[in-house]
Design a protein that fits this description.
The protein has helices spanning 3-16, 62-73, 114-131; strands at residues 38-53, 82-90, 99-111, 137-146. It has 147 residues and is α+β, with helices and mostly antiparallel strands. The chain has one domain (38-146): 2-Layer Sandwich (Alpha-Beta Plaits).
Length: 147
């Protein structure tokens, strides 16, 4: 009779792993024509803008940055973007040490099309023309996107 409780315990333990969990509902918002539920052929592009030295002397102030964003970036990517405050370092040609910079990173998720690539290049050119900076770093990589 002592074997029966032990057998019951062993059977219970063996079956404990057999229980299944109910499926988790998808937490994906329904998309629209511009933002389908899932999107293939999209990329994530990050643009790195130096605003000026980390000590706050010179460069572009917050109002100047917002004006640039409103005039050059938002019209080209009206569906949305993300701006991140950052600190960066940059060593230009002929410089003996890197500059420490206040920076902004703009993150764009967009279809990988010639028109979108041209829009990004226009943003970079506009920043260089406005500030005299040598470059705007661009990083692009494939992205799985869902809305």
């Amino acid at each position: 009779m002592k074997l029966a409780p032990a057998l019951l315990l062993l059977t219970s333990l063996a079956c404990a792993g057999c229980a299944t969990r109910p499926p988790v509902p998808a937490l994906v918002l329904a998309g629209d024509a511009a933002h389908p539920a899932t999107a293939a052929g999209w990329v994530r592009t990050e643009l790195y803008f130096g605003l000026g030295t980390a000590d706050g002397k010179g460069g572009v102030d917050e109002a100047g940055w917002r004006a640039f964003l409103d005039q050059e970036v938002t019209p080209r990517f009206p569906s949305g973007l993300t701006v991140v405050d950052a600190y960066g370092q940059w060593q230009g040609k002929g410089q003996s040490a890197p500059e420490r910079l206040r920076s902004k990173v703009v993150v764009l998720l967009h279809p990988d099309t010639p028109a979108q690539r041209m829009a990004i290049d226009a943003i970079r050119a506009a920043w260089k023309a406005r500030t005299g900076d040598q470059s705007v770093l661009r990083v692009s990589q494939p992205a799985e996107v869902s809305f």
